[in-house]
């Protein structure tokens, strides 16, 4: 190397922040940089020349030095310096074979410099600006975003000539060919290294040059490709002196690998780990977070700062990542865990690391530790709020809603949750205690049993003094945050609970009121214990929202209970017991009925049945289904039932005539919803018992013979009520033979989802046949309990049996 390039190399050697040296075959020192002299305290005058080592022999372990020299001649070495240097520093030697008269070239690095983690990025920037290779960065549109001085020295021009422009804009056809390489890296998300390239720059006006090109994808934290990094080594002159520069190029690329790794892993806490994931090099920035000493950090000691529940998963994740890399796969490492800080509290951190390879071999990991506690806890609060809201909205009475809330927040948000129902009859006046009943207690697994005697009277009662946070929250209707609750005097009078709180290391509490009808009806208490981070004002905002949603749910639950009571009253008035056999008026006819609601909490829906005697001796039957499972469906059901009774009782007409008149009246009065109805009469015709009916869109009756044969009765099925009130309707008849059972029912007994081949209807026939020998009451229970339906709809069964 001659002229300007030789001077450039000399300047780079002088400015590098590591000590450089070169040895001949006998161990004599040929090169000793100024940084090497500063790190060791041995000046170049002392060590240069074949007798240089002899000059410093007293502090040097000669046997170890000779052994290291022998290994460096045949391969790479990375070991502590076998000498006690005057500066007292712990130095590492990174050495490799040289060429020609240079037997060994190497680097001295200060391993005790605590600034290395904090100055990493300054070092990288210096490397970028002063590296003896061309470095450039392009965005996804392949426009220049940054270049270093070496690029402009290679092909002329300035940074301003390039930034914001494409390679083709600057270099014409040569730039277009380079662009194709960079686009391939973007599309494949894989590097292209050691690619020979020749051409003329500045639109072909420059000289013919040769380069060694390396292209690398640059990622952001989530792995998305941000752009492409370009590393260009001008080998036009170096092709003639390749042997002399081989080792320097190897050192150059090693620095570039470390640079790429640090670009992918940036944080205040940077660390380097061995290939297996253990720590040999110190990380002052990591220890600044955890408060560990160096001897506590090294090896696998850094895991001791993790929460005990996270250590196994962290090590398993490390071993999995190492396995993937050693198997030849591209892999990075990421893990979220709790880390004990120097304050003794745990915070959430995210570890990220990338592998560093040398010659295809994994040599180390470079990674970061990022504090994500605020972000994690904020997201966790939203998850808790969503889970609690879902759980509360599924319940339909106030106490069940508050129980669901407690189950949703323990242990995800609290180690203890208690719900206190306040005595609404007692006045909540300043200076007076708050009384009530403890409703719910939920504690995290692993905690000792929570004392149950809160009020001291042996029952699930409580009395909290006027200064207790719960009493204040109940009086004011506002939530309260209490830090260090064990130091408060209002624990007095509850020694069992105080002892329990000390045993579990309770560190904070939150209290929030539950309001209904403008009055506080309950209070929620949440406690944080042990290693859980104490509650903050952000957590106070969360429980405020939890209490508001619980209050809304309680209001809903109370309204629901009122609706339930009305529904029960409707059911009791409309679904009356069928007449006993002696009251039917037709010899041998026995009747039984069953009703099972779909909405078990409402206990009423749109399905209904009715049985009543007519003035002229016949027995009227009806089974109907009004669409819906709400109070409106129940009201419509009641109106239709009353109108059907009135029309049937006032007329000796056929069932079809009664249904036609009912349809016309209900439609004109705007009473009916989508309703199916089967109405008929059991009547005497000589010695025969005959069932005559008309069907408005309802499932066909089921007939079970005494011998167990079951079939569906045939006959016309007319349009449902409310569609065409004037349309003609039809009647059909069937003779009931002794021992036969007639079954009227709603579709909830047999209806199945996606039942394209009518499988549910066939299964109902088999079920009815299997129960033919049972008495009528047991037969009805048999049908309801064994129903093949899976829709969860209402079920009505009305069975008529002729016992001769």
How does this structure look, described?
The chain has 804 residues and is an alpha+beta fold. It contains 23 helices and 30 strands. It is elongated. The termini are far apart. Mean pLDDT is 81; it is low at 114-122, 263-267 and 453-459.
Biggest beta sheet summary:
6 strands, antiparallel
- Write out the strand line-up for the largest beta sheet, numbering strands in chain order: 17-16-15-20-19-18
The overall average pLDDT, rounded, is 81
Tell me the number of strands: 30
Span between termini = 123 Å
Q: What's this, in brief?
A:
The chain has 804 residues and is an alpha+beta fold. The protein contains 23 helices and 30 strands.
Features:
six-stranded antiparallel β-sheet; 804 residues; 23 helices; five-stranded antiparallel β-sheet
Explain the layout of strands and helices.
Layout: H1 3-15, E1 19-23, E2 29-32, H2 34-40, H3 44-47, H4 52-55, H5 62-74, E3 77-80, E4 91-97, E5 104-110, H6 120-130, E6 134-139, E7 144-147, H7 149-155, H8 167-188, E8 192-200, H9 201-204, E9 208-219, E10 225-234, H10 242-264, E11 269-273, H11 284-290, H12 294-297, H13 308-326, E12 333-340, E13 346-358, E14 361-371, H14 373-394, H15 398-409, E15 416-422, E16 434-443, E17 461-464, H16 469-476, E18 480-483, H17 495-503, E19 506-516, E20 519-529, H18 537-574, H19 581-584, E21 589-596, E22 607-613, E23 619-626, H20 631-649, H21 655-668, E24 675-685, E25 688-696, E26 702-704, E27 710-712, E28 732-736, E29 741-745, H22 759-770, H23 776-785, E30 795-802
Helix pairs in contact: 14-15, 14-18, 15-18, 18-20, 20-21
